[in-house]
């Protein structure tokens, strides 16, 4: 009986140690950018970003366990207010009906030096699997004693997959707005204080 009790305590202790090893890092909006670009008239790329978002990453030691992010669609900013207003309408994001874009990992894979975040990506009410190759940097301690990590990631999506179907054509047949959207993330995240 004593041996069984010692074994159970050892197992419980290992679970507690695993739970304590998991660290959460919260995205720092002041040092993070979520940008996108899309072809306009087949001539150039128009860029924009989102100003309001939250996110977090959970690590067990050095191993990423999960990541999630929520973006406020109405915070879209391309530097031109008239265009921002149009992007918020049902022609594009329909921000009133679908106010958030979400990213929630299902699993984490490795591909050489890159970490692949395999996630459910939901935009305009449509959820599809997105494979986001990411590089991580750090950790580093900032001047105020906080532990930080960095993340960079680039991906492409097709806006038609998410029912963003606005598609007028020029006389030449070229789309006013391209279908492929390039996404770029440059993020810093701060380790949450231990409870």
TrEMBL record:
UniProt cross-references to InterPro entries, sorted A to Z: Lipid/polyisoprenoid-bd_YceI, TTHA0802/YceI-like_sf
Record keywords: Signal
Pfam families assigned to the protein according to its UniProt record, in alphabetical order: YceI (PF04264)
Cleavable signal peptide: 1-21
Domain Lipid/polyisoprenoid-binding YceI-like positions: 24-190
Domain of life: Bacteria
Name listed for the protein in its UniProt record: YceI family protein
Originating organism: Actomonas aquatica
């Amino acid at each position: 009986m004593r041996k069984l009790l010692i074994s159970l305590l050892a197992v419980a202790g290992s679970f507690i140690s695993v739970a304590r090893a998991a660290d959460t890092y919260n995205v720092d909006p002041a040092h993070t950018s979520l940008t996108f670009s899309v072809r306009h008239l087949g001539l150039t790329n128009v860029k924009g970003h989102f100003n309001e978002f939250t996110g977090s990453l959970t690590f067990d030691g050095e191993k990423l366990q999960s990541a999630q992010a929520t973006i406020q669609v109405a915070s879209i900013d391309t530097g031109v207010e008239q265009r921002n207003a149009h992007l918020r309408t049902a022609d594009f994001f329909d921000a009133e009906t679908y106010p958030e874009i979400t990213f929630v990992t299902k699993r984490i894979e490795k591909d050489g030096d890159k970490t692949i975040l395999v996630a459910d990506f939901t935009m305009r009410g449509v959820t599809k699997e997105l494979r986001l190759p990411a590089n991580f940097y750090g950790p580093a301690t900032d001047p105020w004693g906080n532990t930080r990590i960095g993340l960079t990631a680039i991906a492409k999506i097709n806006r038609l997959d998410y029912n963003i179907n606005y598609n007028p054509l020029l006389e030449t047949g070229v789309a006013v707005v391209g279908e492929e959207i390039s996404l770029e993330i440059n993020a810093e995240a701060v380790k949450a204080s231990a409870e």
